[in-house]
Automatic annotation (TrEMBL):
Residues 124-163 form the Transposase IS66 zinc-finger binding domain. Residues 177-458 form the Transposase IS66 central domain. It comes from the Bacteria. Pfam families: DDE_Tnp_IS66, DDE_Tnp_IS66_C, LZ_Tnp_IS66, zf-IS66. It comes from Paenacidovorax caeni. Residues 465-502 form the Transposase IS66 C-terminal domain. NCBIfam families: transpos_IS66. InterPro entries: IS66_C, Transposase-related, Transposase_IS66_central, Transposase_TnpC_homeodom, Znf_dom_IS66. Residues 37-111 form the Transposase TnpC homeodomain domain. This is Transposase.
Length: 509
């Protein structure tokens, strides 16, 4: 700040007061700018030095780098499901390359499939059937570290008198005439989407176990399984939208643009029933952008209470009748960052009041909605009302544009949404429930750089929806996927809900 090099003599009292007011205004503005820059500098240092493990590694690979093969397999599976002409199917089958035999050194396990009865059931016959041969189909199985071969032996039985042949039918399989067991398929899916192991790494792991399955083959399996599992994800979405309270959040994922080899920012959206709902599930929706139209398309005609952050993409939903529920953790986070940057006393007091609200919430967590509402009205409401009045007073004292002003403005602007939970025991205090379900995606980004295509991202979202939902219900994702892939080919579409993670029972029929 520089004062003009002119004599102050001769200036009137009014002129001196005007100059002093102008200089004080400049001083406050410079102080606000300094506080803002100090705050931003502290945040940048925290991002740079506090999370070294999340820094970019040029050796990282794309989790979805083989998605072209997987996409092709998925498209082929969808086309095959629509084709009805057997002549076309036979022509395609003839063009398939001959499969190499499975290595002889792998252990074998014989599984026999025989008719229920070896008596000829032809009317008026009743003769004993004679075994005249067998058909053997081999399936490649895998348990961590060990490959084995299942030899499915289907004996042929014939009646000498009426010349009929009886044989046990071939069990339906998620990949028709494929060699992998459902256990091996589940292992590949869990490795890729739960353990964040790209297919090139899985190929190496399988090689150490005795059989290096080509990445292209693994990708084809993944693509086909993605198509087969999609009806489950559609049913899971339908079940979620029946709930009155939902959580929503989104996280960025880079997606490869076709043609130019460059990437752009896509988003993985996540939706889940409210934290106090009995159904534990999450559905991820991979979209090309963060535009609010994607949330509107997913929710459709649903109208309920949506717990979300202050992202503008949700505003159209709110305008159409969806009730906005704010996230108190987001408001608290603004003051936490402020306190971490400069030990602000204003931020410290606000954090203490937020802590009181959360202490009350922990006591009411296990109560019924009506009981939770009563406690919130009696204990939480006075704390938040006092905090609101204090924020209004503090806002009048701090300059516009400062970090403190921004933290206060966020809460004051959204106060009605932030405190809506006090009047409804079914509403959560924050959006942490869905943030916890989206965290595995953020962890996975340490191992991959981009989604290979829109279809690949959507397939990943579908499989990860089932895996994470299984985890939320206490299931082992491998056991869940193995059982579902085994039962899915013969399971009635009208009973698909029985296979959803929150209803699934191991070994149920």
């Amino acid at each position: 700040m520089v004062v003009e090099s002119q004599s102050l003599e001769g200036l009137s009292a009014d002129q001196l007061r005007e100059m002093a007011a102008r200089l004080m205004t400049q001083l406050r503005h410079q102080g606000a700018q300094l506080e803002k820059l100090t705050h931003e500098n502290a945040l940048l240092k925290r991002m740079k030095f506090a999370a070294q493990s999340e820094r970019f590694n040029p050796e990282q690979k794309s989790l979805l780098e083989d998605e072209i093969e997987a996409d092709l397999a998925a498209v082929a599976t969808e086309i095959d499901a629509l084709q009805q002409a057997p002549a076309v199917a036979n022509l395609q089958e003839k063009k398939k390359p001959k499969r190499l035999p499975l290595p002889a050194h792998l252990p074998r396990r014989d599984i026999h499939h025989e008719p229920e009865s070896t008596t000829c059931r032809t009317s008026g016959c009743g003769c004993r059937l004679l075994r005249i041969g067998e058909d053997v189909a081999q399936k490649l199985d895998y348990v961590p570290g060990v490959f084995s071969v299942e030899r499915h032996i289907r004996g042929k039985w014939a009646c000498a008198r009426c010349e009929t042949i009886v044989q046990a039918p071939v069990d339906a399989h998620v990949i028709d005439k494929g060699i992998p067991t459902t256990g091996l398929l589940a292992q590949v899916l869990v490795g890729k989407y739960a353990d964040h192991l790209p297919l090139y790494r899985q190929e190496t792991i399988f090689g150490r176990a005795g059989l290096a399955i080509p990445r292209s083959t693994l990708a084809q399996w993944v693509g086909t399984c993605g198509v087969r599992l999609q009806p489950l994800v559609d049913a899971l979405k339908e079940a979620i939208l029946k709930h009155r309270v939902l959580h929503a959040d989104e996280t960025p994922v880079q997606m490869l643009k076709p043609g130019n080899g460059k990437t752009h920012r896509a988003y993985l959206w996540a939706y889940a029933p409210g934290a106090f709902e009995t159904m534990k599930a999450v559905v991820y929706d991979f979209c090309e952008s963060r535009a609010g139209e994607h949330a509107r398309a997913f929710l459709g005609e649903w109208r309920g209470s949506l717990t979300c952050d202050d992202f503008s993409g949700y505003k159209a939903l709110i305008a159409s009748g969806v009730t906005e529920v704010g996230c108190l953790a987001h408001a608290r986070r603004k003051f936490f960052d402020l306190h971490a940057a400069n030990k602000s006393q204003i931020a410290e007091f606000a954090l203490q009041q937020f802590a009181r609200a959360y202490d009350i919430e922990r006591e009411a967590k296990e109560l019924k909605p009506d009981e939770r509402k009563d406690i919130r009205q009696q204990q939480t409401r006075p704390v938040l009302d006092a905090l609101h009045q204090w924020m209004l007073l503090q806002r009048q004292k701090v300059p516009d544009g400062s970090a403190t002003a921004k933290a206060l403005d966020y809460s004051l602007r959204r106060w009605e949404a932030l405190t809506r939970f006090v009047d409804d025991g079914r509403l959560p205090i924050d959006n942490n429930w869905i943030e916890n379900q989206i965290r595995p995606i953020a962890i996975g980004r340490n191992n991959w750089l981009f989604a290979g295509s829109l279809r690949a991202g959507q397939r990943a979202a579908a499989v990860m929806s089932l895996i994470q939902s299984a985890r939320m219900n206490g299931h082992d994702p491998y056991a869940y996927l193995k059982d579902v892939l085994t039962r899915l080919p013969t399971h009635k579409a009208s009973r698909i809900d029985e296979l959803l993670p929150h209803r699934w029972q191991s070994g149920a029929i």
